[in-house]
Design brief:
alpha/beta; Rossmann fold; 7 strands; about 45% helix
Length: about 400
């Protein structure tokens, strides 16, 4: 059960270096050109702004989906970004499991199986029981039971997913408990370890709290969706609080690395809608300031621009005058968004810095309360940008 141990001292050093980078470049990553069409840094760094605004659409799209190319483009205009990030990036642990999917007939998608394969390769040989935290249909739990011979409990709040998982588990030593881990406080048995592959936001935060409260012996956690934590707070005492707000957390997950073309097209369409409405609401209110726009859900994503503006106007209690010609606002929205995408490339260069700082805080917290801690990359970013694996074993 031993793992390579990152000492609290080393974790504190990593946090301090990331903090210094973020503090010295706060003007670049804390300003969004979508909300502020003319961020203050544009005047302070005219060469960088001009380089961004001169990008062709083809070059822009390449930088949006290729983090390495983006760092190359920013270096050396953003001092210490590449070197600090390279020093903090956790080491890689390669997968040594066969690529064949033993569950191909049991509806485990190929990309999901690839993530599971890499995740499992980082787990030590063990026969101890495990808990698949927020396990859905139990793809991870079934894989662990099948390939490692371990008994697994899958915790999942969706009754339909639990039912499907039970059918898929067949004769495997896997059980499903339908429960909401945030509310139902499922029991954790002595000797069980916690496994979580992309439990979102508050779900993985609650995992850490429960693990600490009940003395769980081992945690293997690949966190994601940091922005789905209602209010993020630093847990570690040995490093400064970076003071991240909801917008900072959202920055950490704004990757397009694995997004298919249709998703990128839908995203660009929605961005143009949002930019167009932002221009419209400033006109209607006679106030040149941004109003937050809520996320779209389900059928709302299929709305045309008229329906989108009506929805957002209702949300903010604005009156959309009858007969308002909306096509000019949408045209300006496309233009405005093309500009903001280019300027926000600079902000996007700090995505991984913010993510690492978030996860290093949790790693340091676990080290401070008595766990041996390790942080590694368990799969390529082209498979999933959320490729950090936090492992902790109680000494």
């Amino acid at each position: 059960m031993t793992i390579p141990n990152m000492s609290a001292t080393l974790l504190i050093e990593h946090c301090a270096r990331l903090d210094a980078l973020l503090d010295s470049h706060r003007h670049l990553w804390r300003s969004s050109a979508f909300r502020e069409p003319d961020p203050a840094w544009v005047d302070a760094l005219p060469r960088l702004a001009a380089a961004a605004l001169d990008l062709s659409e083809e070059a822009l799209q390449r930088l949006e989906v290729d983090p390495e190319a983006l760092l190359n483009w920013l270096d050396p205009q953003v001092l210490n970004l590449r070197t600090t990030l390279a020093a903090a990036e956790p080491p890689w642990v390669g997968a040594d499991l066969p690529e064949d999917n033993p569950f191909a007939s049991l509806h485990v998608p190929g990309r999901k199986w690839a993530q599971i394969r890499h995740f499992m390769a980082a787990l030590p040989p063990a026969t101890t029981p495990a808990v698949d935290w927020c396990g859905g249909k139990g793809h991870l739990g079934r894989s662990v039971a099948q390939l490692h011979g371990r008994r697994v409990r899958c915790l999942e709040r969706d009754p339909g997913l639990c039912q499907s998982g039970r059918a898929l588990a067949a004769a495997l030593p896997v059980t499903f408990e339908c429960c909401d881990v945030l509310l139902d406080l499922p029991r954790l048995e002595p000797g069980e370890s916690l496994l979580a592959l992309h439990a979102c936001g508050a779900l993985h935060e609650h995992l850490l709290d429960r693990a600490l409260g009940e003395g769980v012996a081992r945690i293997d956690l690949a966190p994601c969706c940091y922005h789905l934590t209602p209010t993020w707070q630093a847990k570690a005492r040995g490093a400064a609080d970076p003071g991240f707000d909801a917008d900072d957390l959202h920055l950490a997950v704004q990757d397009l690395v694995t997004a298919p073309a249709r998703v990128r097209r839908a995203r660009l369409r929605e961005r143009a809608f949002r930019a167009g409405f932002d221009l419209l609401q400033r006109h209607l209110r006679g106030c040149d300031s941004y109003l937050p726009q809520p996320s779209l859900k389900g059928p709302q994503r299929q709305l045309d621009f008229q329906g989108f503006c009506t929805l957002m106007a209702q949300h903010h209690g604005l009156e959309l005058p009858a007969g308002t010609a909306l096509s000019p606002w949408l045209e300006q929205g496309w233009i405005r968004d093309a500009r903001s995408r280019r300027l926000d490339l600079v902000r996007g260069g700090f995505r991984r810095v913010v993510e690492l700082r978030i996860v290093f805080d949790r790693a340091l917290f676990l080290a401070e309360v008595g766990y041996a801690v390790n942080l590694r990359r368990f799969c390529p970013r082209t498979l999933t940008p959320r490729n950090l694996l936090l492992q902790a074993v109680r000494d």
